[in-house]
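A protein record in our archive is deliberately plain, so that people and models can read it alike. The tokens are whole numbers drawn from a learned vocabulary of local backbone shapes. For reference, a complete record is included directly beneath this paragraph.
>
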Amino acid sequence: MSAPRRQRLDPALFELPIEDIRAGRYSDKYFLRTRDVLRADGHRPNVLMQVFGKTASMLCGMDEAVALLKLASDDWSALAVRALHDGDAIEPFETVMTIEGPYDAFAHLETLYLGVLARQTRIATRTRDAVRAARPKDVLFFAGRHDHWSVQARDGYAAHVAGAVGAATDTQAALWGGTGFGTLPHAAIAAYGGDTVLAATKFAEHLPESVDLVVLVDFENDSVGTSLAVARALGERLYGVRLDTSGTLVDRSVVPQMGQFDPRGVNAQLVCNVRDALDDAGFERVRIIASGGFDAARIRRFEAEAVPVDAYGIGSSLVANDGAFDFTADIVQTDGRPSAKVGRALRPNPRLEAVT
């Protein structure tokens, strides 16, 4: 048997609540009742469970799905699992995992591994699309504030698998060994009385040189003026400015140019205004990071127009759930005989690898 193409994450990294999972506290009730009935009846069928998604996507969450089976099934040694890897491209209805063994040993885990696969595949796929649209520019994962804090590690890992180069929190970066990215928020500016330059100067004074100093410049809705003021105050210490103008506002520099485009938020004209002003003042090395309502489609438009953005920060569009990346699990064989419901059948996939 050939060795796996790459190592899976250590199941211990996921810090799963094993006893609660085994007790069924996270499982759909009908799976628990099925397990209870089978055991009460003394019926222990050997089944082949087949898992698939319905959308072409980048698979993610498989390492955690495997961890659930290894750590929270009743008897891992009784199961034979074959699976694809995180980061694999999959086609609609392609089998991504099979589980063979006594059904009562893993019936309680279906809700969990399907949910893990759905969420992480959704985030990985949307991040991959954004990364492709931005390439070779960077995509930064800024989704922490758009969902519950408890999902940060998994979400950040999925974004990393898909090619995002940075995350906003240390926990988002934990599973891949990184650290959070980001420096000066609006709150810091407000804490210094709304003075962006003063706040930036204090950050430069107290943060180590190894920290790339990026400053939000929309606090006064004057991104050009604030960018120039910060660049003059910080000089070589300034790594970049981040444009984050609200979608309900028109930046001061854009007002004279209105008429032929939607002037609200971070638009192409605003980016060009900031880039031209920085370049004209001798600050060509200062990078521009654009954030606020970006998704893959909007990045593609910016790139098609050669808008001078150096990196994109993306959040809410990567975690929004429209159900497009849901997964399904079916028993397709019972005790070696076909047993799939009408419309489903065994779909062998030679790409699956045995999980050890």
